């Protein structure tokens, strides 16, 4: 159960997180409730979204995973989408990044696009990514990561499309992958 929640949180946090430049520069998006959809390929083959694995969980296990996600500021939405809450403070503080475990070098950073290269020492993961900010209510993050899995190097390509749903996050806490 904890493993499924951890994979989901890691997948979203790693991809979202890398888009942030840190506390020095805030992503050009609105605070509020966001709907986030992701597509992944592992070694060139389509992979199930982390939320898809939740469909096969026993109801009591799924409830525990959803509670763990909610503690981090995430909720399972409809049709495989997730909901995240970003407040102005959480965006300014760079809470949507995972900088404690990754060293990130930023390349191009404009008002509409950020590119980066991250090395995450504990996991041995290397990520190259790009965030495209269409406007303050829509962004896309594309990453290619390599990591070791059971002694083999794997390449994962992830695309996240996010859209702003509104300023009110309801009872969802601000997103913080470190909680």
Task: Spell out the blueprint of helices and strands.
Layout: H1 2-19, E1 32-42, E2 45-47, H2 50-54, H3 59-71, E3 74-76, E4 82-86, H4 88-92, E5 102-109, E6 113-120, E7 125-135, E8 138-149, E9 152-166
Antiparallel strand pairs: 1-2, 1-4, 1-9, 3-4, 5-6, 6-7, 7-8, 8-9
Helix pairs in contact: 1-3
Describe this entry's structure for a reader.
The protein has 179 residues and is an alpha+beta fold. The protein has one domain (2-164): Lipocalin (Beta Barrel), CATH 2.40.128. The chain is 23% helix and 42% strand. It contains four helices and nine strands. Strands 1, 2, 3, 4, 5, 6, 7, 8 and 9 form a nine-stranded antiparallel sheet that branches. Helix 1 (2-19) runs parallel beside helix 3. The radius of gyration is 15 Å and the shape is globular. The two termini are 17 Å apart.
Percentage of residues assigned to helices: 10-25%
Kindly estimate the percentage of residues that lie in beta strands according to DSSP: 35-45%
From the spread of the alpha carbons, the general shape counts as globular
* Average pLDDT level: 79
The gyration radius over C-alpha positions equals: 15 Å
How many helices in DSSP terms? 4
First-last Cα distance: 17 Å
CATH class: Mainly Beta
Annotation, overall tally of beta strands: 9
Biggest pleated sheet: 9 strands, antiparallel
- Give, in order, the helices and strands: HEEHHEEHEEEEE
CATH second-level architecture? Beta Barrel
What do we call the CATH topology? Lipocalin
Low-pLDDT residue intervals, each spanning 5 or more residues = 1-15, 17-24
